[in-house]
């Protein structure tokens, strides 16, 4: 697969370039809003071409797919251009600034006959695959509630627009709530119906929220409690599912690294669940490549991206209004 990178980003440098190459991909070009940065990034990472011209990058005959990791407000225009150029697209979350735009992206890709995927990495983690396998095996019975702990301390190199630029999609809700929404959907196999929420700035956000707590209702009757933050240096992360026959308590699993621990508690006692330590992004790229070849589907497709964004949008609305808010999936 011949790739172009749309966005000279930290996530591409730290995770995706290696994952793409590890899956046999050939990265031919990189785009930045700055030509100088594009050239420097290309040289640093052994990429043949660096450019600030999206049209020129997409016009290159050797590109088959693009990975988009620019700031959130750019995703829609860039993805739509790539789809129109006949490229397969792997896009960072959130897919767009609005659910309506994200739905338009998905529909355009369906019409064009190209693969359109969302880079929701957590569902690729060995830990979450093991949790899902235990759930599907009925080991905790029917799920009654879920608790998600995703309060972290955003490192300085990732701050910038995330903590001070609402126009670029900054704030903890578009950055982390979408991950938690996708992870809950991945495990429960159902979509949140309504949410209540509160958000605030607890020391890092400047014009955007840096902390949020919310409760979601599910069609099955299960309830979800989620906590996201940029300001918690010592909280660590966790994912808990409590059912009629037992509980799964996972710690330090809402992360890009293949780490953490999972404990299954039932009437028979406690059991540690083992899991694979494979590269999350490598698995995502491998499944994306297979889908582009006509075999299977991406780990998270465009519809998954629409639905995670819809939950985050409902949480943002609920926090702003103080009202119980229905999740609007844009008809998808």
From TrEMBL:
Recorded GO MF terms: nucleotide binding; oxidoreductase activity
Domain Gfo/Idh/MocA-like oxidoreductase N-terminal residues, every copy: 1-120
Keywords recorded for this protein, A-Z: Oxidoreductase
Domain (GFO/IDH/MocA-like oxidoreductase): residue spans on this chain: 129-249
SUPFAM superfamilies to which the protein is assigned, alphabetical: Glyceraldehyde-3-phosphate dehydrogenase-like, C-terminal domain, NAD(P)-binding Rossmann-fold domains
Gene3D superfamilies, per the entry: Dihydrodipicolinate Reductase, domain 2, NAD(P)-binding Rossmann-like Domain
InterPro entries: Gfo/Idh/MocA-like_OxRdtase_N, Gfo/Idh/MocA_oxidrdct_glycsds, GFO_IDH_MocA-like_dom, NAD(P)-bd_dom_sf
Transmembrane region(s): none
PANTHER family recorded: BCDNA.GH03377
Protein's UniProt name: 1,5-anhydro-D-fructose reductase (1,5-anhydro-D-mannitol-forming)
Source organism (scientific name): Roseicyclus mahoneyensis
Lineage: Bacteria, Pseudomonadati, Pseudomonadota, Alphaproteobacteria, Rhodobacterales
């Amino acid at each position: 697969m011949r790739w172009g990178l749309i966005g000279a980003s930290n996530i591409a440098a730290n995770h995706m370039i290696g994952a793409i190459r590890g899956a046999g991909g050939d990265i031919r070009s990189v785009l930045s809003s700055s030509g100088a940065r594009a050239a420097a990034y290309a040289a640093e990472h052994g990429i043949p071409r660096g450019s600030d011209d999206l049209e020129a990058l997409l016009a290159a005959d050797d590109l088959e797919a693009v990975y988009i990791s620019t700031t959130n407000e750019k995703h829609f225009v860039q993805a739509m251009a790539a789809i129109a150029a006949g490229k397969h697209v792997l896009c960072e979350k959130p897919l767009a600034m609005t659910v309506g735009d994200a739905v338009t992206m998905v529909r355009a890709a369906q019409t064009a006959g190209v693969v359109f995927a969302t880079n929701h990495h957590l569902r690729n983690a060995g830990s979450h695959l093991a949790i899902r396998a235990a759930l599907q095996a009925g080991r905790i019975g029917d799920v009654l509630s879920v608790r998600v702990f995703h309060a972290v301390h955003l490192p300085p190199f990732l701050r910038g627009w995330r903590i001070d630029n609402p126009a670029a999609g900054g704030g903890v809700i578009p950055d982390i709530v979408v991950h938690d929404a996708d992870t809950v959907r991945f495990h429960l196999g159902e979509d949140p119906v309504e949410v209540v929420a509160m958000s605030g700035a607890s020391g890092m956000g400047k014009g955007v929220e840096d902390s949020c707590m919310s409760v979601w209702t599910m069609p099955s009757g299960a309830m979800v409690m989620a906590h996201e933050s940029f300001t918690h240096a010592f909280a660590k992360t966790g994912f808990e599912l409590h059912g009629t026959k037992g509980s799964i308590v996972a710690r330090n699993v809402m992360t890009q690294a293949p780490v953490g621990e999972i404990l299954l508690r039932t009437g028979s006692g406690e059991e540690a669940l083992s899991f694979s330590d494979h590269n999350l992004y490598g698995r995502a790229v491998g499944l994306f490549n297979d889908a582009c070849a006509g075999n299977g589907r991406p780990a998270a497709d465009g519809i998954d991206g629409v639905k995670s964004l819809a939950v985050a949008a409902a949480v943002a609305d609920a926090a702003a209004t103080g009202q119980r808010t229905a999740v609007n999936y844009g008809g998808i």
